[in-house]
Every structure is written in structure tokens, then in C-alpha cells.
Design goal:
The chain is an all-alpha fold and about 375 residues long. The protein has 2 domains: about 1-230, no CATH class; about 235-380, no CATH class. About 60% of the residues lie in helices and about 0% in strands. The protein has 11 helices and no strands. The two termini are about 60 Å apart.
Length: about 375
């Protein structure tokens, strides 16, 4: 851990106290590595040539860059013959514990990061002091998270070298390769997919020994929050389904009401009959009849497109039973309906033959439905 902490530091810059502390940590690490070499020569005789080649200057100035030459760093053939019996398995147990602890720390620091983000978003302060303190806290958490990530990757690499075929125990199902894209959560980030398509990172679902503990109150609290959010999302989706069906019903009711309004305007014009000749009244009646027919044909198109789907998922809708079941045909797109009924639409830009998809029971010589649907498309754009 001390080696990775020293590697995470960019340079020797800083105030005098931090630089002296950094140099003291290097000296302590150098002494620890030097005291480890006699034990390695005793328990790992095959590491003697590698230990003799260690640069003493590098060991004194930058001990974090010196290879430790543990059993995981040795070649497989040399490790099996030049190590004390059971030593590779002991390192495997050590590395496995390091990896699970590091994975637990990654989850803790990710939870802490999310808490800090939410807190800064809800408690906005414009003072320089608050911003500086928040930035310093973020940097500390980021540094610890980086160290935990490095520890996990180094430990997993050592485990992969010691037990590639799980000779010392199963680990491939729980200690997966940690990519940068896996370091996210808990929950969905702002730039990720929608809630319905969101997939949680494996670091929150893997069954490691540390995270599966019943005493991990932080993890249990985070899982309860995610469970509650998932339940509310499922209920919201169910509510949206009901609202969509209700909107369909209201659309049909509105179209029928609007058609009746146009029909009533044929018999009761808003102006005085004495000032309008018979030809104009006939034109007004024809136009009102055309508009009423447009609404009823639009209603029929909607029913033909959605009847089978609604009847399959909502078989007990009372308002749906008032409509007759149309023949089972593939539902066409809205633009297909426009081109199907609009005799002036240019079909040279598509390969679809819309004459083949026109049903026999549809007759719209005036292209009334096409004009209405074109208006809908124009307003929607």
C-alpha cells in the first residue's frame, strides 16, 4: 500500500512539511524492502539472482519502483521449484484478501463521491472558502479511490499469475477485470442510458466475501435505496401504460365529438340564412361533411393500427369492445398512411409500393385524410 501511495504522488513539490513527510515514507519503505531480502533468499532461493541485480541507488531514492520479487513475480517453472512448499498459496490468500478489501474500498469511495456530488448540488455556496474546501475533499477521495483501484488491479494480476486455472480456489467469478468504465455508480450517472436500459456495474453485484457480509450497513443502505428506486420506476412505467391507453380513448372520443360538431354546423350555420345563397350553403355543408368524414376516418385508422395490440395486453377495455375487430395486418408507419391516402405525394424517393398495402375497405378519393395527417406532421415538426 505504501508503494502505491508513493507512486500516486506526482512529484516532490509542495510545502516543506509534505516534502519531509514524503521523504520519510520513502526511507521507511526502503528499510522495509531491505529487511525483506534476507527472508526472500531463505524462503525463495530462486529469487537470489534477481535480488542481486537490484539497483541500490534506486532502492535508496525511489524504492516504490523496485520490484519485490514475490512468488507471483517469478516465472511459473521457477516458482514451483525454487519456493518453499505452500508459499505461493500463502501469497494467493494475501492477494485475494487485498483484492476483496480494495473492491470494498472502491465501493465506499464511489458512494462517498456520489454523496459529495449530491450535497454540492443541493447546497450551493458562492464563497471561495466553501469551493476550496469542497475541491480539497474531492481530491482526497479521488486519490484514495485511485490507490484502491491500483491495489485491486495489482492483486488480481498476482492472483492470475499464481492460480491461472483456479488451483488455489475460485476467483474468476468474483474478481473480474476492472475497466475504467466499470468504476461508476451506485445508480445511474447523468450521461448514461435511461433508467429502463441502465445496467449496474459488476462491482456492485459481485459476490465478494467482504461485500456479502450482513454487517456492511453502508452497502445494505445503498442496496435498499436502489431497490426502492427500481420499484418506483416499475410503478411509473405501469402508470404510463395506463395513461397512454387513456389518451387513446380520449383521442377517439374527441374525434367523434368533433365529427358531430361539424355535422351539427351543416344544419345550423352561424350566420343568417337570408344573407347566404343556396350555393354557399351547399358548399358549407359539403365542407362540414368532409371535415366530419376526416375525423371518423382518422379514428378508424387508429383503431385498425392499435386494436390487436390493445386487445392482447388489455383484453377487458369496455370502450374497445364498441369497435369491430379489423383484419390482422402489419401496422404501417404514420408517413406510410400519409403517402397511402395522398394522391399528390411523390413516391419516387422510396422503394415501398404503397398501392399494395392499401386495404380494400378504404376509399378516400378526395385525399381528405392525407391533408389532415400532413397538417399533423407539419405541426409536430
Amino acid at each position: 500500500m505504501l508503494r502505491r501511495r508513493l507512486k500516486a504522488r506526482d512529484s516532490d513539490t509542495g510545502d516543506e512539511h509534505s516534502v519531509n513527510s514524503y521523504l520519510g515514507q520513502r526511507q521507511a519503505l526502503s528499510r522495509n524492502i531491505s529487511s525483506l531480502h534476507p527472508l526472500q533468499r531463505l524462503y525463495i532461493p530462486g529469487s537470489a539472482p534477481f535480488l542481486d541485480a537490484v539497483d541500490t541507488v534506486l532502492l535508496a531514492d525511489h524504492p516504490e519502483n523496485v520490484t519485490l520479487w514475490l512468488p507471483s513475480a517469478l516465472p511459473s517453472a521457477l516458482r514451483d521449484t525454487q519456493c518453499v512448499t505452500g508459499l505461493p498459496q500463502l501469497e494467493y490468500r494475501l492477494r485475494y484478501a487485498q483484492a476483496t478489501n480494495a473492491l470494498h474500498d472502491i465501493r465506499n469511495f464511489r458512494r462517498l463521491t456520489r454523496i459529495l456530488v449530491l450535497k454540492t448540488q443541493s447546497h450551493i455556496a458562492n464563497t471561495q472558502r466553501t469551493a476550496t474546501r469542497a475541491r480539497g475533499l474531492f481530491d482526497k477521495v479521488k486519490l484514495k479511490l485511485t490507490q484502491a483501484i491500483s491495489t485491486y488491479r495489482v492483486s488480481r494480476k498476482a492472483i492470475e499469475s499464481l492460480s491461472p486455472n483456479e488451483e488455489f480456489g475460485p476467483w474468476k467469478g468474483t474478481l473480474l477485470e476492472l475497466q475504467d468504465s466499470d468504476i461508476r455508480g451506485p445508480g445511474r450517472e447523468g450521461s448514461e442510458n435511461s433508467e429502463s436500459r441502465f445496467v449496474q456495474s459488476w462491482i456492485w453485484t459481485t459476490a465478494s466475501q467482504v461485500s456479502a457480509s450482513a454487517d456492511d450497513t453502508d452497502l445494505q443502505a445503498a442496496l435498499r435505496v436502489e431497490w426502492c428506486k427500481a420499484q418506483e420506476r416499475a410503478r411509473r412505467y405501469e402508470e404510463e401504460k395506463e395513461l397512454i391507453v387513456e389518451e387513446m380513448r380520449r383521442t377517439l372520443v374527441y374525434l367523434e365529438w368533433n365529427a358531430q360538431e361539424w355535422e351539427s354546423s351543416m344544419t345550423s350555420p352561424s350566420t343568417d340564412d337570408s344573407n347566404i345563397d343556396s350555393t354557399t350553403l351547399a358548399g358549407v355543408a359539403a365542407y362540414a361533411n368532409k371535415q366530419a368524414d376526416i375525423r371518423r376516418r382518422m379514428s378508424k385508422i387508429f383503431i385498425d393500427d392499435w386494436f390487436h395490440l390493445l386487445n392482447e395486453h388489455f383484453p377487458n377495455l369496455p370502450w374497445l369492445k364498441k369497435h369491430t375487430c379489423p383484419p390482422a395486418t402489419k401496422r404501417n408507419r404514420l408517413i406510410s398512411n400519409v403517402k397511402r391516402y395522398h394522391s399528390y405525394t411523390d413516391t419516387s424517393q422510396t422503394d415501398v409500393n404503397y398501392d399494395e398495402v392499401v386495404s380494400d375497405d378504404v376509399d378516400d378519393p378526395d385525399g381528405a385524410i392525407a391533408y389532415s395527417l400532413v397538417d399533423v406532421l407539419d405541426h409536430s415538426e
